């Protein structure tokens, strides 16, 4: 799950980013409204966490421009502005949720998961591949009727491979789904997650195309 964090306070932003990463989110961090506008117009984020008091472009302006461009990405406003009028203005401008500082990090994580579930349930059906079923909205996987526990990054890789069944995805393409800007990427991370998926699901589910990447074969029509 890839999130754009828009926060100009370095200490608060660093804490939010670390907390979301610990919960399995891939986090890109923009520190002003212009940077956020460019990021959200060029990357397919699952959600945006948006402060309002931003340099260069205020958060409300960034929100309105995003909605004017018909970008449906779920946006959660995270701000110290706590009046009813502020909350109404933010929601009417197109925000999907509104959380007031100070806040509990666990609540922020839960609200983001809820936003993404609602958005994905409208656009992504359950993906079936033989006896394997992946539910993007419920973040669940079953194999032959048995629930399979996956880490957030294992789920992200499996989801991406199933969405692109029949196509080879490079290691770099998969890493983009797992890590945010500036986040250190271990050289063998993708290989380790693929190994775990094969062990938990089926040894031959994910095929290695040597020198190119990984793929899941397309189901026969």
From TrEMBL:
InterPro entries assigned to the protein according to its UniProt record, in alphabetical order: CheY-like_superfamily (IPR011006), OmpR/PhoB-type_DNA-bd (IPR001867), Sig_transdc_resp-reg_receiver (IPR001789), WalR-like (IPR039420), WH-like_DNA-bd_sf (IPR036388)
Any one Pfam family match given in the protein's UniProt record, by short name: Trans_reg_C
Top-level taxon: Bacteria
One GO CC term, this protein: protein-DNA complex
Stretches assigned to the Response regulatory domain: 2-116
Keywords associated with the record: Cytoplasm, DNA-binding, Phosphoprotein, Transcription, Transcription regulation, Two-component regulatory system
Biological processes per GO annotation: regulation of DNA-templated transcription
Residue positions, PTM 4-aspartylphosphate: 51
GO molecular function term, any single one: transcription cis-regulatory region binding
Domain OmpR/PhoB-type residues, every copy: 124-218
Location within or outside the cell: Cytoplasm
DNA-binding region residue numbers: 124-218
Entry protein name: Two component transcriptional regulator, winged helix family
Organism per entry: Gallionella capsiferriformans (strain ES-2)
